[in-house]
Amino acid sequence: MSDIQVFKFKFVIIGENGVGKTSLARSFVSKQFAMDYKPTIGSNIFMHNVSLSDNINVSVALFDIAGQEKWAMMRHIYYEGAQAAFLVGDVTRERSFDELANFWYPDFIKFCEKKPTILLANKSDLESKTDKKKIEEAAKKIGAIDIVYTSAKTGENCDDALKKLVLYCMNQI
Can you give the CATH number for the domain in which 84 is found? Predict the structure, then answer.
C-alpha cells in the first residue's frame, strides 16, 4: 500500500466587485449558490480538497478577495504566498474584463510576480454582453493559461476550472 501524498496550494480569486467571486468560491467548495448579494469585507477564505488519484490529494486555500476600492490598501496581504490566481470577469459587464487586464492582474503581479492564472468568464447562464474577442484579448494580456466560462449559479465548469489550475500547479512541481 502506498502512502498518500498531500499537496497544499493557495489560490486567490480576484476581480471587480459583483462579478461573482464569492459565489464561485462557494460553488467550488460546497456546490451551493446564494441568491442574496453581500459584498466581501477584506477576504473570505475557503478550503477545498481535490483528489487527483488514490494517493494524491491537494488541499486548496481559496482566498476570495474583496473587489471594492476601499480594500485596495490591504489586498497585497492576501496575495502573499499565492501559487496561482483566478481572475474573474462578468460576461454581462464588458468593462470587468478591461479591469482584469488593466488593474487586477498588474496589482496581483506587483506583489506576487508572475503566477499562473485562469480567466473565468462568469455568469455564463446569463445573456452575454461581452464579445468573446474581448475576453480573449483580456486573457492574452494577463497571460492566462486558459479561459473557462463558468456559472456559479448552475455550477457549470466550476469543478473543471479548479481542477485545471490544480493540475497546472502540480505539473510545475
Answer: 3.40.50.300
